[in-house]
Design a protein that fits this description.
Blueprint (H helix, E strand, L loop, with lengths): L2 H18 L11 H8 L2 H12 L6 E5 L2 E3 L8 E3 L1 E5 L4 E6 L6 H19 L12 E7 L10 E4 L15 E7 L10 H10 L7 H14 L2 H40 L4 H7 L7 H8 L1
Parallel strand pairs: 5-6, 6-8
Antiparallel strand pairs: 1-4, 2-3, 4-5, 7-8
Helix pairs in contact: 7-8
Length: 286
């Protein structure tokens, strides 16, 4: 038995269970469901974006309230929290990342998100110049990089000459609400970060968000939708897990056939696959 992989799987299962234990009453703006619901309000989302980026946005439109990107069944898909475009054609992806990740894990996650978003923007036959300006923003109620600051903005620069920027029109921003205050963190941002961290501060944007949170939580149909949402996520995870098992089994079968010169039937028997499933795997490999 692979003890390392078993431990990782057990840890992931425990983390999923921990996230599921929150009752409707316990939910806050940090939580996936409420964050998506509140940020679906165009006025709130626009104000949050303007506050985070210190820019003025004339108009934004949701590309979709919730987007799932999955290139094909055997690739890892991503579910975007808030995915929208402004009147200048700039794309914004805003994510609430509650589960703490290591710096290396975060970097790879950002890379993967960008790859799938770019692939969705550029249709077959289009020129690369048609890729739109993109902001990927992760809001995280924890510390990274030693907790030295709250906002980290990443662009691509030349290693040999930092004055040369690779102008790919992609900006990745990590907002770490529990880091040390940046010099460019104004009172509105400070109040927003405090609210995300669980402290209510009297501030126009925070009051707007909090009022919406309270309104949503007072709606009985929202409670029902939250229950359904949890079941939907669970079913998707279960389906993805099953797809992963099938893909792994196919790879094991191919390895047995290649490395040990097994026939497909011998490989199926060697992996103790039920005979009623032989037809499925034969159709996948042949």
């Amino acid at each position: 038995m692979d003890t390392k992989n078993t431990n990782i799987e057990n840890k992931e299962t425990t983390e999923i269970k921990e996230r599921k234990r929150k009752t409707w009453e316990e939910l806050t703006f940090q939580d996936d469901y409420l964050f998506k619901r509140v940020m679906c309000e165009i006025d709130i989302c626009t104000k949050v974006l303007e506050t985070l980026l210190n820019i003025k946005i004339i108009k934004v439109e949701y590309i979709q309230k919730e987007v799932i990107f999955k290139e094909n069944y055997d690739n890892k898909g991503i579910r975007l929290d808030v995915y929208l475009e402004d009147s200048n054609g700039v794309i914004y992806d805003i994510e609430m990342q509650v589960q703490a990740l290591k710096e290396e894990e975060f970097a790879k996650r950002l890379r993967y998100y960008q790859a799938l978003i770019d692939a969705s923007i550029l249709y077959v036959g289009q020129d690369y110049e048609q890729l739109k300006k993109l902001y990927i923003i992760f809001i995280c109620p924890f510390k990274l990089f030693g907790g030295e600051q709250q906002i980290y903005t990443f662009k691509n620069y030349c290693k040999e000459n930092k004055e040369i920027e690779l102008k790919d029109d992609v900006t990745k921003i990590l907002v770490l609400t529990k880091g040390k205050k940046n010099k460019n963190v104004n009172a509105d941002l400070e109040a927003l970060f405090a609210y995300i961290n669980g402290d209510k501060v009297d501030n126009p944007l925070v009051n707007l968000i909090d009022d919406r949170v309270k309104f949503i939580k007072n709606q009985e149909e929202e409670r029902t939708m939250y229950m359904q949402y949890g079941l939907k996520i669970r079913d998707e995870r279960k389906e993805a897990k099953e797809e992963g098992k099938v893909e792994a089994t196919i790879e094991y079968l191919k390895a047995l056939m290649k490395n040990f010169n097994f026939s497909l039937e011998q490989a199926l028997a060697g992996l103790n696959i039920p005979k009623e499933k032989y037809g499925f795997y034969i159709s996948q490999i042949n």
